[in-house]
Design a protein that fits this description.
Elements lengths: L1 H21 L10 H26 L5 E2 L12 H12 L8 E2 L3 H27 L6
Antiparallel strand pairs: 1-2
């Protein structure tokens, strides 16, 4: 039953995404597949780049802890840094990993990119739907 519910949830999410991208019934709709893919690959590259940056920073200093009061270190594996980069870029910030030291500066930059870049792409998409195709 557990696997069935997981499968059903994944199918439900997929159908909703399909409906969103395929539905052209609303007035003046415009969806640019190329712009969406460009945003996806750019965000993926930024996520990966910051994960590498955090990994390299961790070779010389502790940069992620579980709690600021105890400063219990997070295991410095690439997957942990990839996860941390993702939750920072997408502004989720669960609080299970906290940056310290030089990583704090880079997390602010990554979070700003995560907010501003999709906004810029959204504005570009609106601009494209009004007839001006500037790439």
């Amino acid at each position: 039953m557990h696997n069935f519910l997981i499968g059903a949830a994944i199918v439900f999410i997929g159908l909703n995404l399909y409906y969103f991208f395929a539905n052209k019934d609303y007035r003046k709709s415009h969806f640019s597949t190329s712009l969406f893919l460009k945003l996806f690959f750019v965000l993926s590259g930024i996520l990966l780049g910051f994960a590498v940056l955090y990994y390299v920073l961790s070779t010389s200093d502790l940069i992620l802890v579980q709690d600021l009061s105890t400063r219990e270190p997070i295991d410095p594996t690439f997957l942990n840094f990839l996860y941390f980069s993702g939750e920072t870029l997408f502004s989720i910030g669960y609080g299970d990993m906290l940056p310290i030291g030089s990583a704090r500066f880079f997390t602010i930059i990554e979070a700003a990119i995560g907010v501003l870049l999709p906004t810029a792409y959204f504005m570009k998409s609106l601009d494209s739907s009004n007839g001006s195709e500037d790439n």
